[in-house]
Amino acid sequence: MTDPQNEWEQTEAEGRAEEPVEAEEARPEESAPEEPIEDGAGAGEPWFDETWTRVHPLSPFVRGWVTVAAVPVIVFGYNWQMWRDLWDLWRSGELVASVERNPLPYVFGSGGALLLILCIFVGFVLSWWFTRYKVTADHVMVKSGIFVRQHRQARIDRVQAVDLRQPLAARLTRLAELKFEVAEGDGTAATLAFLRKSEAEELRAEIMDRASGREELAQRTRRPDADAAPPAEGAEPAPGDAPGSDRPEAEPQGAVEGAAGQQPTEHPPAGPAPAAHHTPDRQITRVPTGRLIGSVLMGVGTLLLLLVVALSFTGGAIALVVTTDGGIGAALAELREDFSVGELISVAPTLLPALIGLLAVYYQGFSKGYGFTATMTEAGLRLKYGLLETTTQTVPPGRVQAIQIQQTVLWKPFGWYRMVVSVAGYGTAGQRNTLLPVGRFEDVMAVAAEMFPDLQVENPEALFREGVRGWGTRGGFTEVPRRAWIFDPLVRRRRGFCATPTALMIRDGVALRILSMVPHERIQSLGITQGPIKRKFGLANLRVHLPGGPILAITANQEVDAVKELFEQESAYAAVARRYSDRNQWMLPEELREFEKKVEEAVDAGHA
Amino acid sequence: MPAERPEAANEPIDPAGVEWTRVDEKYIPVGFISGVLGWLAVFAAVGTPLVLDALDIIGGIPLWLSIPVGVVLVIWAAVDIALIPRQARAIGYHEREDDLLIRRGILFQKLEAVPYGRLQYVDIQAGPLMRKFGLCTVQLKTASSATDASIPGVVRKEGARLREELSVRGQARLAGL
Which ipTM was obtained for this model? Predict the structure, then answer.
């Protein structure tokens, strides 16, 4: 029986399967951020008490509707002929007669069907009943599972990001799912599905506030004697604010009790206003549908298509010339003879799977990027996108490990760029690493300015322009020395780096232009490598080690002295700069001050 | 070839003024033993079909294939094993004020810097062979899986000291988190 229960258990099993991987990943000596505790025995102690909140009753349906819909489709689709015969029997009246003659099989049959439906329903109800969550001062905890019980928790101060997802069914029912990311591993620490959208938004705002330390700050400045914020267990949705939540600018930010006082319109501040931390949301950029369609058409799918076509043409031509006696002339003549439209059509069906795959690539690009908006909120850059399934994800600038600006050769005439971000917990692949699916240079600058507000260079725009489009040594970038052109005949003048006071910028590529930016304080460790030939040429490669993500910060074939200088400089930065360390509450002022001081020291030391 | 000077303190990529702490000389026999064992395994794997061929159990391995492959493998193995002592001597580490430097390699050289503040944990590993010689491998982990910082062939006492030292320094740098 493929009812959603099974699906439910599968997701659990996956959740556990991830564990060893995460254990291998960097794990600090202290308590792990996420630990599925299996106290399935539960002897005596109840699995949960009244402090645990239930998710929305429709959750299992929203989760499992595909399965529920698939069962009849499969049943009817599989033996369609039988059902048609049955229909004919019914119309001719034979069926009724047959039932009257011997009702037993029909009773069993319909009883079985009813039982199946009942089982699914009971399964849904049970899985709803057994899924509870609780938000304490330190943790978000989710318990689920009917038979195999699971308890996942994420430490709030280690939460890197909270995503709000709305699959199609959830959008229709105005529900939403929250995903909590922690630093280690590619897996999601805890998934809370489903809540009312308004509830989910409130909870997200609260968790993000706490994860960033902003709430602590507010408490300290405003009501130092107050207890820790009341957990959001009882977070009843504020009546009437659900419908308006579809507008990106009007999302109820920080409207939770815990963040009270930051939303003057809803909670008039009791004391002196907290430090000016409440800023209205600003829309940074959006992707018009026209540009998105253009970018998809000029995207990876087309690039692959062109590549395949070119390869098969050359391959076919070579094969033809080789197999035909008498050289190219004869081959061409034979081609002219053999070639016919009919033949082409007969080949077409074999290409169908590839064509469907190609269309899927296009559709993916379109549906994921549809309606993309980037809004700067208090908690970070809020990205919202999706055609059928919408996702709202918040990228906190303080947790960005690196960003990368990319441009493929097909986008060059249009001046389009893509931006990718590396945030611990997002993993190495997938949509969530996309900071901007397609944008013009202005959009790139706008987004980059939010991520890295202060490059401490005179003209950041010129530097960026140089990074994504420029070549040679202008703008302070390095290049592969001329004597070593043989290593990089095409990208020699593009391959290089530039270190600003706050970030390391690495650019590369001609057909695929890349500019990666890594804040110095994000660098975990560094490595230089040099092989025998490069030693002869006085070159070396530098690699900057970042926490997992899609961005590889590596610059090859650079002048060995430049690499060594950068190595020294970066290790000096990396040694002192720890403000953005993963477990930090990055908004706390003492952290900021401490960091600034340390950086200044490091810079001075570097100059001395 | 510049690679002829494995013990020279300053290869082109080495930072100026760094005195490398080299790993223990006992790591050379360990390297020899594991190298020889590894190559024996390779020869066993490659040699099995040849033996079977010679015994007429299977057939069809032409001489033009087996002889060059064999020669290449033997030369490769000889060079590899001959390089072991120098490779072992090329491994070095140096504790600076804020980070640990690790270097490896003669032909393909690598230099890594791991800031103490970035250390997530320090691991000590010792297989049976290493244990027999009283050695261990010190492995440093940061939040980045790309960090490949390990020092093989450290005397166990020194390894323990290094771990203590690094942990303490890491803690000191992490203080206040």
Answer: 0.82
